[in-house]
Amino acid sequence: MANRMILNETSYHGSGAVQNVVVEAQRRGFKKALVVTDKDLVKFKVAEKVTALLEQANLDYVLFDEVKANPSVDIIKKGVETFKQAGADYLIAIGGGSPIDSAKAIGIIINNPEFADVLSLEGVAPTKNKCVPIIAVTTTAGTAAEVTINYVITDEAKKRKFVCVDVNDIPVVAVVDPDMMSSMPKGLTAATGMDALTHAIEGYITKAAWELTDALHLKAIEMISRSLRGAVENTPEGRAGMALGQYVAGMGFSNVGLGVVHSMAHPLSAYYDTPHGIANAVLLPYVMDFNKDFTGEKYREIARAMGVQGVDQMTPEAYCNAAVNAVKQLAKDVGIPEKLSAIGVQEADLPALSVDAFNDVCTGGNPRDCTAEEILDVYKIAF
Ligand SMILES: NC(=O)c1ccc[n+]([C@@H]2O[C@H](COP(=O)([O-])OP(=O)(O)OC[C@H]3O[C@@H](n4cnc5c(N)ncnc54)[C@H](O)[C@@H]3O)[C@@H](O)[C@H]2O)c1
Ligand SMILES: [Fe+2]
């Protein structure tokens, strides 16, 4: 079987990369942007780092700052209306996964109006046209939404998050500038960084993984585990390592899929509005333990990439434990709680959560096939 890779047309990395928003908008002849972001990013003057450049260059734009974390169907519909009223011809997304995912859904619906109900985009949507061009400026170091072909929307009426996978939605330009991330508070840096580590680990062991994505995911695991503690302390090296590490993970997992950590995390955000990264971070070591006998030698390489010494002398049991413990230690060092009970999950909800997790699009990629009952057992252990 042939393997497929889809990446941005152009991406910019490193301090000062944000200047290239103007370069790309001018080079591509874009006329008017809908800038998709959220109110906190306006308040903390993060969005302004981009809009000030647009103003200096006389590039016209309209601001849509109504995105909320875990964006809902209604927000997408509002964004579509605002895009039309503005007479915009491209999108600039400024934010973490929530604004970038919102921009993807808006851009897809503008050019594929038969999906205007949003809900019909769930899963692999058969859209025919590429979405409106997106320049994605990421402000968190986690989701890698700027380089993925996925987006996640919340159906508030049914209390569920759904994943949309669509090759037509990838931003044409990604801007990954660590200076856009320096204002993240410690907790957000830790949560989004653990999301990135989860992408790298789940992408590395997922069923569709192959040599090229293995190289990306192992490099990402190494960069993230080396950089996350520093990023939480806001060091320039830590921020730079996380900005690139999360992007490299995205280059991989977007093309091969994830696993049950994400399946189990999605319902937690839908039920309790749990930040996506926190949900992943708490669940990751428990799911790694559940999967360990279905991953060949890969946990040895995960342990090595995370800096564990002496892995070549270890038995399978020892290197599996070493990999899980390295993840637990990193999570602990950046302040992530160990149990679901500590992040507001209700024990009585666990059976319903397991059904939703089992039906999540990420479940098929898990290296170990599992039933809803087995997922329930993992939730119980993690509780
Ligand atoms: N598209 C994908 O492939 C993909 C992958 C994983 C997750 N997701 C989705 O992405 C969403 C989560 O995205 P996220 O974790 O990046 O967070 P987010 O976009 O939801 O933002 C969370 C909060 O952080 C604030 N924030 C963001 N950047 C900041 C900065 N630089 N300084 C100060 N505050 C800042 C925002 O204003 C917001 O209040 C979820 O809906 C998740 O399901 C998408
Ligand atoms: Fe994620």
Automatic annotation (TrEMBL):
Residue ranges annotated for the Alcohol dehydrogenase iron-type/glycerol dehydrogenase GldA domain, each copy included: 11-178
Gene Ontology MF: a single term: alcohol dehydrogenase (NAD+) activity
Pfam families: ADH_Fe_C, Fe-ADH
UniProt keywords, alphabetically: Oxidoreductase
Names of required cofactors: Fe cation
Organism domain of life: Bacteria
InterPro entries cross-referenced by the UniProt entry: ADH_Fe/GldA (IPR001670), ADH_Fe_C (IPR056798), ADH_Fe_CS (IPR018211), Alcohol_dehydrogenase_Fe (IPR039697), Lactal_redase (IPR013460)
Record has Oxidoreductase as a keyword: yes
Domain Fe-containing alcohol dehydrogenase-like C-terminal: 189-382
Its EC number(s): 1.1.1.77
CDD domains noted in UniProt: LPO
Family matches, as PANTHER family: ALCOHOL DEHYDROGENASE (PTHR11496), LACTALDEHYDE REDUCTASE (PTHR11496:SF106)
Homology family: Belongs to the iron-containing alcohol dehydrogenase family.
Protein name (Swiss-Prot/TrEMBL): Lactaldehyde reductase
Organism this protein belongs to: Exercitatus varius
Gene that specifies this protein: fucO
